[in-house]
Every structure is written in C-alpha cells, then in structure tokens.
Amino acid sequence: MFTKILIAASLLGVPTMLAAQATPTATRKASLQVGGGYSNASTDYTATRAGGFNAFFDYDFFHHLGIEGEFRYVKDGETNVYQKTYEVGPRYSRTYHGRFSPYVKGMYGRGVFNFTYQKQTTANIAYNLLALGGGLDYTVQRHLNLRGEYEYQHWFGFLPSGLTPSAITIGAAYRFR
Questions:
Q1: Is 16 helix (H, G, I), strand (E, B) or coil?
Q2: What pTM, to 2 d.p., does this model score?
Q3: Domain boundaries along the sequence of the chain
Q4: From residue 103, how far is each of 95, 111, 150, 160, 177 by CA, in Å?
Q5: Contact at 8 Å (CB) between 134 and 104?
Q6: From CA 31, how far away is CA 123, in angstroms rounded?
Q7: Beta carbons within 10 angstroms of residue 67's beta carbon
Q8: Share of the chain above pLDDT 70, in %
C-alpha cells in the first residue's frame, strides 16, 4: 500500500514541489526616480538670492550606487542675472527605517551665466563646473518621495577666481519600481 502511494505521489509531481526554493527578498533590480522642485540659490555675483526650479533623475543600478542628472534654472528677481546648469555624476545613498534615504553626490557639468556688464551690455557665457551636494529623500508613499538638498558648485574660468554658487532645493519625485 505504501509503495502505491509513493508511486502516485512521484507521478503527480510532489518531489518538484518539495525541492522549490524561495526567491530572495532582499534583492531588487535597478530603480529610476524622476522629479523636480523649487531652488533658492546664492549666485556668488549679486547680493540677493535667486529663485527658480530644477528637474532631476536618479538611476540606481546597484543597491547604494547610482547616477544623477540635473538641470537647474535660477534668476535674480531684481536684475536680469540668471544661471542655468546641466550636471551629471555619481550618487551614493543609504536607506534607514524604510523611509529615510540620505545621499551624497559629485557632479560635473556646464553652467550658463547671464549677467549685465558695464550697466548696459548683457553677457551670456558658459563655463564648466564641478558640484558637490547631499540631501535626504523621504518616502511618503511607495512611488512618491520628498527631497531636501544642498549643492555647492565651482565654475571654472570665471574671472578673477571662478564662480562659487550654492543652492538649496525642496522638491518631490516619482519612483519607478
């Protein structure tokens, strides 16, 4: 009787069910996050601060390591001074308690600077730049993050010793999972 049950079980596929293994739960594929926000910056050219917006993407291809791309536009409300930056670079982040993700980034890019020269002529010149920054992403819902960020930039070639603006950004992003 026991041999008949054993033969029937083997024909019905019980051994393949017994050999099944669980899929790892701590692994994930790459993730993409796209967002934007409001930026407030010190232009390092005028005494007043400049306001504007930014748009960014984060593509994390390893658990803590990824790449970020960013565009920022800020303009001084009193003059026609504005700065546009296009940046890309590596990003390192960690996640704590499932909701808090602090990160640091190093960026390389190009900045366009528009300013008034000798009180009548407007100049529009582009410079290479390096930027360092960091911030915090806070997960509100599964696909929605809030972001707070600080970034320091160094623009090369701006006379006499370069331009060093800094910006604070508050924004939100949609995370594709």
A1: helix
A2: 0.79
A3: 28-176
A4: 9, 23, 11, 33, 19
A5: yes
A6: 40
A7: 15
A8: 84
H helices within 25-117, ranges in order?
none
Average pLDDT value for residue range 77-81: 82
Name the amino acid, one letter, at 71.
Answer: F
Phi/psi at 156 (5° precision): -90, 145
pLDDT in tens, 13-23: 555 555 555 55
Write the pLDDT tens digit of every residue in 25-68.
555 678 999 999 999 999 888 888 999 999 999 999 988 999 99
Over range 93-111, report the average pLDDT.
95
Q: Which two tokens stand for residue 10?
A: 């083997």
Structure tokens of 140? 């509100």
Please state the length of the chain.
177
DSSP 163: B
Q: Which CATH class for the 28-176 domain?
A: mainly beta
- C-beta separation of 137 from 147 below 8 A: yes
**For residue 14, what are the contacts with CB-CB under 8 A and spacing of at least 6?**
none
Mean pLDDT for 112-135 is 88
Peptide bond into 102 cis (omega under 30): no
